[in-house]
Amino acid sequence: MRSYFYFFLICSSFFLQGQYNSEFLNYSNFRTQVALTGEVEWNSNSLNNNFIQKVYRGGYLDNNSKGAVSSALLQQNIFGAINTYGLNAFLGKDNSRFDWFVGMKNQQYLNASFSKDLFQLLVYGNKEFSGKYASISGAAFNYLKFQEVKLGFIWKNVDSVGKIGGALSFISGQRLLQYKAIDTNFLYTAPDATQLLYQANFSLAFSDTNNTGLFSSNGSGLSADVFVETPYQSRFGKSRFIITVNNLGFIRWNKNTIQYRVDSALNFKGIHVDNFLNLNDSTLNLINTDTVIGRVGERKKDYYNMNLPMNFLLIHETSFTNRYSLRLGLRQLFNANYKPYFFVENKFSFNSKLKGGFLLSYGGYGKISGGIYAEFTFQNQWVIRAGSNALQGFTFYEKTFGGGAFVNLIRKFK
Length: 414
Known about the structure:
The protein is mainly beta. The chain is built from six helices and 18 strands. It has helices at residues 2-11, 24-30, 49-57, 63-70, 116-124, 289-296; strands at 33-44, 76-92, 98-115, 133-135, 140-158, 162-181, 186-189, 196-206, 219-234, 237-268, 297-307, 311-319, 324-333, 339-349, 354-364, 368-378, 382-388, 403-412. It has an 18-stranded antiparallel beta sheet that branches. A hairpin with a 3-residue loop joins strand 5 and strand 6. The model is unreliable at 1-18 (pLDDT under 50).
């Protein structure tokens, strides 16, 4: 997974028309085309880039690194990363009312929600909570990887100028890990550290651990995409609204999906050891996930249904001149520990071959971000885009939050 992360970070992410994970936005600009797309983005409202890098690469977390995050923690914190890449095509004739869409894509989502107390527990231990309750309520962790084949259409001339599109995706679920704390969860540490009381109320599910190969499949599902574009003439210039929805669907994981459900209090007062010199005979041998959860909850292997992280995007664009346009937008990911994401994009056309712009945004998994991009057209048929939607991740690295990068290659036909 690490090698894929760095590969896409450097050379295969996609911005704006693809950074928001919707192929239909490409059609809005280039019509019939074949496009190789990819994207990577990550952000947090409390974990800075320095901390994330050290955790991911296994670096040493010194007191300065931990302290910088501790001082930025909120009562409830989030982190998320998205990585998608694929190949798609929009094909059709000028005199036809419809264009047709086909594509295939790989999607990965990693996101988490955690309390300030949980972070302190994991990083510093429970010493500071001696005689206190550490809240774990609201904690969640999701990792999801799946592939899809898409088939769809564009109705090009609704009321002469509007466009409506849709697509159906056939999904192969590859990997799943899903944890969610339900209602009240806390850890109590006795003042003299002789007792731990864990009020546990959570669910946990993960896909078949014996089927993890490169082309493994552990589930199947369906999803739908929707696209609407409504151009109009405003007093400032040509304008349009764009609405896209994708990943509106589900995955049914197979009968080998392991599921735990715990709602109980775990009271730990130590371990009885009969023979310290021969721990193989002690109760340490009996301590594992299955035996502990088997006593306080339930474990089963069975089919498991889950909703996909649905992506909703609303954009309003106005072209004030032939060389400058402004975009205002809202994005929301559902089922993904995501907050509403607002953005403003300024787009400039320097000549027929070179375009560029910059972006300011707030929300999502992080706070304020800024990015830039450039678009180059050559031989009147090929388009390359490159840039970043969170440039701060590559400038003041140790003190900033979030990052992303992109490269996109398009072969247009009109």
